[in-house]
Amino acid sequence: MKSHHHQLLFMFLVFFAQKIELLTAETFTGTYGINYGRIADNIPSPDEVATLLRAAKIKNVRIYDADQSVLKAFSGTGLQLVVGLPNGFVKEMSANASHAMTWVKENVQAFLPKTSIRGIAVGNEILGGGDYELCEALLGAVKNIYNAVDKLGLADVVQITTSHSQAVFDNSYPPSSCIFRENIAQFMKPLLEFFSQIGSPFCLNAYPFLAYMSDPENIDINYALFQKTKGIYDMKTDLHYDNMLDAQIDATYAALEDAGFKKMEVIVTETGWASLGDANEAAATVNNARTFNYNLRKRLAKKKGTPLRPKMVVKAYIFAIFNENLKSGPTSERNFGLFKPDGSISYDIGFHGLSSAESSLLSLKVRDSLYQHTRSFKRQHIGIRTVYFLDKNN
């Protein structure tokens, strides 16, 4: 009878282990994430950034490379990280599977499981970028990186993606008319076919800020900022849109459906609003950035879908943690951060600056320690109660 008890207890523990494994395989917890850009010489250290993000309870983070100082700093924090394979590596990874394997071993496997790496973004905004050779190399790089991850037994934990700008689309207004550009489709469709096979989402970089800036005379800024507005009506689908981001996401779903990938999920991998700009970037103000990001946070917290895909909960990574002083281009490019270089808030949307985060770190560690002790006690208690329950029934 005791062996029977042990067998049932073993099955019970295996069941819970499987549950835990399923939880660890999630690539996005909740609906809110953030991009950690580091093109700056005045931002806090990766350790301080980990403290800041934990205090803000932002769990999902994307970086644009696989910088080892960041991977080490995020070890043991519980922050879920998507690392980037920079565009400059894509041709090499496409041409050489062994190089892809080496890259995955050194930049992903070596840091698991302590650093919670949940995805690899292969390149950023390659399709639609104008580099034909890079476009040709993307699918090969994606396949080689995926095959390396798969051979290492990590395919259920680490998701492979690539992000697209809206330059891949034609006719995005109204949303239902959107399709992939003709010169993009030859690269896009095989890529989507592969992502469909491995269960990856379509990753979209969507900026109402840029769309508004391109046509301020015909776009209501309130529509771009999630403010009250009459919105737009799509006659083909009989759907109403009260904010631009939802329309941009549904335009993507329309293009995917047109290409034959109706069931593919769309995740917003970048969106944000600049708080400072040049003279010709009048919409880049602190007030507008605060309004956009505050309302976006509220919209994501509702955990709802879009008019076209009401059951597909919208998930988005905000761009970005910090203003980045070394970025090129217009002034707006250097001013998308929710936080200033010194770690203080750029504007108030409910987060606290680095100094507040550091002062609360001790209490956070104490709480985590208490939580771990409580879990340990519960596990022992559950085991005792399970055996007792089996004994009573036999």
TrEMBL record:
GO terms for molecular function: glucan endo-1,3-beta-D-glucosidase activity. Keywords: Glycosidase, Hydrolase, Signal. Residues 1-25 form the signal peptide. It catalyses: Hydrolysis of (1->3)-beta-D-glucosidic linkages in (1->3)-beta-D-glucans. InterPro entries: Glyco_hydro_17, Glyco_hydro_17_plant. One of its GO terms (biological process) is carbohydrate metabolic process. Pfam families: Glyco_hydro_17. Its EC number is 3.2.1.39. It comes from the Eukaryota. Belongs to the glycosyl hydrolase 17 family. PANTHER family: GLUCAN ENDO-1,3-BETA-GLUCOSIDASE BG1-RELATED-RELATED (PTHR32227). This is glucan endo-1,3-beta-D-glucosidase.
